[in-house]
């Protein structure tokens, strides 16, 4: 690709996180050498079979510049999703930023569900059971859990 535009005008520190199963926030910082009137626009494509979509709900900084996006009803369809952030300015050309992200790696899991503890009166101890948290991940056996036991 041709990287036209002012060096240092593309966004920096791009990251996305999926939470509560279907919500995703993506955030970034303005390029350190971007003109003050630079505005950024996020597009993403969940799979090669989907159309590219622009952000519908931008997160703005104190100057009204787009520095993030909120998405709803997100589904992880393929291993990698494509993200592109374009910029525009009256003063100069702005470099674009693009990245492929593995969304399942950005997911913040909810707590396990239906936790129960069954303790017997003898020295056998307790049995703790739970259901895996809701997740886009298909391989529930890949989850690792840690139990903190406090004696009182």
TrEMBL record:
GO terms for molecular function: cytokine receptor activity. This is CSF2R factor. It is a single-pass type I membrane protein. Keywords: Glycoprotein, Membrane, Receptor, Signal, Transmembrane, Transmembrane helix. It is found in: Membrane. Residues 13-104 form the Type I cytokine receptor cytokine-binding domain. PANTHER family: CYTOKINE RECEPTOR, INTERLEUKIN 5 RECEPTOR SUBUNIT ALPHA. InterPro entries: FN3_sf, Ig-like_fold, Short_hematopoietin_rcpt_2_CS, TypeI_recpt_CBD. Pfam families: IL6Ra-bind (PF09240). GO terms for cellular component: external side of plasma membrane. The keyword Flavoprotein does not apply.
